[in-house]
Structures are given as structure tokens and as C-alpha cells.
Amino acid sequence: MENFETIMKRIDLKVARMKAELYIDAYYEQGMEIKDLFEHIWYASTEILPKLEVQVVIDSNDAIHISSGSSGYVDFQIDPVGMKLPIKTWIHTHPFGSAYFSGTDIRTVRVWEPLMKTAHVLGGDGHYGSWFQEEPNQLKIYRDYEYDRTQVWNRRSEEE
Q: Residue 115 falls within a domain, yes or no?
């Protein structure tokens, strides 16, 4: 049986997850460009939530689907009902501050590549990476909003 303090921590986290989703959704509803939304997604991941990964999916109807996970992994805990394919963009955070595609991220992009136009990973403070369907084996990484380097992987999802 859980004690009262454990139950309250779980409730607090559930409330924080809802606040983070509402916060991101409110800014998205203002009609922001995707890159302008990055700082708000990062804020939700690191300030509203206790440094938990957040993912945002914009579908082909411009509907937003938001979820949060652990400090190192995120997925949809409930199926995103009504999501219309293809996906325009998938954005997720690495709240520990480094923008790159992990092996899991590369595998995710590989699976969704035919049905996803862009993907972005946020590492904070102007550090982010952008992947495009037209260049499927690479992530362009930016630091302070300036191009820094390109992460490249081969067909077997291994970095080169």
C-alpha cells in the first residue's frame, strides 16, 4: 500500500503533466511557427515538469498531440486518437541538454520516415537538431541558432 506522500507526489506529477500540455497547446493555438514553439516546449519539459522528455506531434490536419515521459524516454501513454497521417513534424526534448538523435530516435525516424516530413530534437538554449524526410540519414544540429554540425547514420541505424 502506498503512503500518503507517494500518492501526493504522483498526483503532483499528473497535474504538472497536464499543465505542460496546456501550456504548449496555448502557445500553439496562437499560430506560432514551429521554431518559435521550441522555447515553449523546452520550458514545459524543464520548468513545468521535473526535466522530463516531452514530445509534440503536429499531424496533417495541423492538430497537436502532446505527451511527456521520463527523463530519458517519451511515448504516447494513450493512443493519440484522431491523429491524421502523414505527420508534419515530431518534436521531442532531451531535458539533460544535448540535441542529438539517440539510437531510439533514429529507429523511430526510420519507422515513421515514409509518413513524417520533419523531426526536431531540443537540447535547450538554442541547441536543437532538425531532420528532414528528403535527407533521411542525417540530423542537422544547431547551437545558439547557428549551424554546428551534422549527425549522420547509415541504413542500419548506426552512426557513421
A: yes
pLDDT digits (tens, 9 = 90+) for 5-48: 999 998 999 999 999 999 999 999 999 888 899 999 999 999 99
User: pTM (2 decimals)?
Assistant: 0.90
In the chain, the amino acid numbered 63 is A
Phi, psi of 74 (to 5 degrees): -145, 140
Q: Which residues pair with 159 in a beta bridge?
A: 153
Q: Is residue 107 in some structural domain?
A: yes
Residues 101-146 have pLDDT tens digits of: 999 999 999 999 999 999 999 998 889 999 999 999 999 999 998 9
For 120, residues 6+ apart whose C-beta sits below 8 A from its C-beta are: 34, 38, 89, 90, 91, 92, 128, 129, 130, 131
Q: Which domain holds residue 55?
A: 4-152
CA 48 to chain centre: 15
User: Domain with 136 in it: what CATH number?
Assistant: 3.40.140
